[in-house]
Every structure is written in structure tokens, then in C-alpha cells.
Automatic annotation (TrEMBL):
Residues 20-118 form the Replication protein A 70 kDa DNA-binding subunit B/D first OB fold domain. Pfam families: DUF223 (PF02721). This is BnaAnng09140D protein.
Amino acid sequence: MASKKQIKTAIVSNEQAIPINNLKPVHTAKMVHAKVLHSWKQNIQLGGETMEFVLVDENGHKIHATCKKTYIESKGSLLPVGAWRYIRNFHVRPAGGAYRTTNHAYKIVFNPNTNVTRSNFMNDELYLNLVDFQLILSGTLDEKLLIDVLGQVLDCGDVETIQCSGGNQRKKLEFILRDINDSRIPCCIWGNLTDILHSACNQDDGMVTLLLRFAKLGKFRGELQISNSFDASRMIINPEIPEAEAFKDIDNGDDTTLITFESNEESQEDNNKQVNHPGKRGQRDKWLIFPTKTIQEMVASTHRSYWGIDEWNATSDYRNV
């Protein structure tokens, strides 16, 4: 004889789940069948502690879900990352905020009547929406929406501790992310992820492919930059996915296949040549991510420029904005 829990699961499983992309505020009493892609806790000064989720259905449609502290133990704890669940009796509210994990117009909000039950469905699909680097560099994307990016880590710096407002200290790590077509984007991650990535970059082979899910687009000193949205982002190092296999073909296990860039008296053409420096795989001069301009070109340019001056020399940090 089936237990009450088994019967309850069977009953829920036989109900018709509504596709996530069709969810609207009128569907409070409806049910969704979804996989948990990501979860994290956050504490907002006015809203208090909550548990946040990114859910996806079998068709790849995603929606954000939020659970107040009151229901974390009874409901939020039943939603581990990677699991499929039936969720019913919830509120559907407009999605807002500065940074959104999905482009869905609404989000799921758990309430006292929300019910979470197990599903027998299983798969390893990550439901990625990788964004092309050229599209990112075009500057046309909505910076309010978090994105998925995949690339090879170059020029990984040192972990720095930054003094922030309120006396708080945060760790940061800067690096360059390049795609399979050698397009490159400056990146900066914050918090606990810094030590993890820095350690991976300093392993013997030094070859790191990085998948950053729900990454934030922004600008630093007028230049486009990718960063993590703290715990809302998920970092996977050397992911075992088909899209990452192409980076293995680039490297082929040969230290000389990754280019090391130097900035000195040598010509720009020489900088593009392959240089083999053991222990410095993928290192490149950060100035080289900006275009080289002659004085005449800079005078004639209609773009604004930022200038950096140190005590030894004066250099132009030319950045199109």
C-alpha cells in the first residue's frame, strides 16, 4: 500500500503543469514542473532574509522565484540545485530589481500554501543561454538582465582586498575572458569566488575555461566589463559541456599555443607574435585591449578619452565610450 507521501506525489504528478513562459498573476493556484538551476540566500535591509531560485521548465523557459525566511525550512529546503520539482499554490508577481536573472515579466513568490513535491524526471541539461562576445561588445544588451558567458581566462591577476563603504572589505580579481574567436572582454569578480578562480589559474597547466552564469554587465571607467552579481551568479571552472570542448582544441596541451603579449619597444606586430614564457600562460598587457592610436588620430577623434599619468611617464588610456 502506498504511503500518504507517495499518493500525494502521484496526484500532483498527474496534474497538468503550466508552461513557465505562460505564467501570469491569474495563475496563483496553478502548478509548474521545474528544475532548480541556482539558489542562494540574500539579506536585504528592508526585505529581510530570503532564499532566491532560478527555475526552468522542460522547454527551457526560466523564471525567478523567491521564498521568505519564514518558509525557507519548510519549502526552500526542498529545492536543491539540479532537482526537478512540482510547485503549486504560489503568487505570481511582476519581476523587478536592478539585476534580473531571467527575462520573464513575472516571478514566483512562495506563500503559506505553497506546496513542493518530488518529480521522477531527471536530466543533466544546464539550459544555457550563452551570449556571443561580439553581441556583448556591441553595447546593445540590456544591462539589467544577467547573462551566461563562457570563455578562456587570460591575464589572471592577484586577489585584492578592497575597502568598501561602511568599513566592509571585499575581495576582487581581474582577468580577461576570451571566446573561441579570440574576442576579449575585461572581467572582475568579487567575493569568495576570487580565491577559487585564482587557485585554478595557478595550477600546473594554467588552462582555465570559465562558465559564469547569471553574470552582470556593467562599465568601469567607461569600458564594458563583466562581473558576478555576488551570490546571484554561479561560477563553473572547466565545465564538462560540449561548448567548452572547442577551447581544448585551441590549447592542445601545448604551452606555446597560448599567446603572451608584451608591451615594450617592440612593434605592435611583434606583440601579436607567439611568446613562450613558462609560468605565464595567457598573460597579456592590459593596455593592449585598447586600440592603438597616433597623435593625429586622437586629435581628430570625436570620442572622449581618459588619460593616465604616473610619475615616470605619461600614457594615454584611449577608450571609446
